């Protein structure tokens, strides 16, 4: 495995919301889809979903909102104790 791939896997990630806003007959609606990474949210955002919604409802917007809540964190590595006993 390359170093870049390993670093990408080991980085901390936060929950990210894809917020979809649209209006139907003057009523405003919002929908939220949750993703474990910002990258996954961006993929959904660029997937063509916006175009499908916009074709039916012109007053449409979509964005990815990163929270501060961790969805994945880096696992700490065990350190050698160099023969010392933990007390």
List the SSEs and their pairings.
Blueprint: H1 3-10, E1 13-24, E2 27-35, H2 38-45, H3 49-56, E3 60-72
Antiparallel strand pairs: 1-2, 1-3
General description of the model:
With 87 residues, this protein is α+β, with helices and mostly antiparallel strands. It has a domain at 10-69. Helices cover 28% and strands 39% of the residues. Strands 2-1-3 form a three-stranded antiparallel beta sheet, with helices on one face.
In short:
The chain is 28% helix and 39% strand.
Strand content: 35-45%
- Spatial separation of the terminal alpha carbons: 37 Å
Q: Would you tell me the overall average pLDDT? A: 84
Order of helices and strands: HEEHHE
SS-based class: alpha+beta
Shape annotation: rod-shaped
Low-confidence stretches: none
The main β sheet shows up as: 3 strands, antiparallel
Order of strands side by side in the largest beta sheet? 2-1-3
Give me the number of helical elements.
3
Total DSSP E strands: 3
User: What percent of the residues sit in helical stretches (DSSP H or I)?
Assistant: 25-40%
What is the C-alpha radius of gyration, as a whole number of Å? 20 Å
């Amino acid at each position: 495995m390359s170093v870049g791939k390993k670093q990408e896997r080991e980085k901390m990630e936060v929950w990210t919301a894809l917020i979809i806003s649209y209006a139907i007959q003057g009523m405003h609606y919002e929908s939220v889809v949750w993703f474990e990474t910002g990258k996954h949210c961006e993929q959904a955002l660029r997937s063509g979903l916006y175009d499908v919604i916009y074709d039916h409802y012109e007053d449409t917007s979509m964005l990815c909102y990163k929270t501060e809540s961790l969805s994945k964190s880096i696992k700490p590595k065990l350190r050698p104790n160099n023969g010392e006993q933990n007390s």
